[in-house]
Design goal:
Pfam family, one: RNHCP
Oligomer: single chain
Shape: elongated
Strand content: 15-25%
Number of domains: 1
InterPro entries: RNHCP (IPR024439)
Helix content: 10-25%
Distance between the termini: 73 Å
Number of helices: 4
Organism: Lapidilactobacillus achengensis
Number of strands: 6
Strand order of the largest sheet: 3-4-5-6
Largest sheet: 4 strands, antiparallel
Protein name: RNHCP domain-containing protein
Structural class: alpha+beta
Length: 145
């Protein structure tokens, strides 16, 4: 690649409007990630473990100097119904949102989505007491049958 093409390719925001055809090996699980199968021209996380790298300050600008591992910490659903992954940088703490790719590991996506249910911010054995403290009846409904 000549110097002029390289300068254009790495200009601020280049990847925001241009497809990225680069393959990469995941820094977390080592899997090779290729553009085919992503359903998008902008693969930015591993299809297997959903990890990413902190390379952008704004999507596509490649301006971040951090380079830390972006771990998947949650998911959210856009108005369109499309899922997006919430990533947090393990080095600096920056949060970002990235749309899910067509070939993302569905079991990993579900594990990330369900993580808060498996580790609630309160002791589950005190749910009746906590509900009563909030003005509820404080009792779980009894199944009648």
């Amino acid at each position: 690649m000549n110097r002029e093409n390289k300068r254009k390719m790495y200009a601020k925001g280049y990847y925001r409007n241009n497809p990225c055809h680069d393959s990469f090996a995941c820094k977390v699980c080592g899997r090779l990630n290729v553009e085919q199968g992503a359903g998008s021209d902008h693969r930015n996380h591993c299809y297997n473990c959903l990890a990413s790298l902190h390379v952008d300050d704004e999507p596509g600008d490649r301006a971040a100097n951090c380079g830390g591992i972006m771990e998947p910490i949650g998911v959210w659903v856009r108005k369109s119904g499309e899922w997006a992954i919430i990533h947090r940088c393990k080095r600096c703490g920056k949060l970002s949102s990235n749309r899910c790719a067509a070939d993302d590991n569905p079991m990993k996506l579900m594990a990330v989505a369900l993580k808060p249910l498996g580790n609630p911010p309160f002791p589950v054995e005190r749910i009746e007491e906590l509900t009563a403290a909030m003005g509820g009846q404080g009792e779980l409904p009894q199944h009648q049958g």
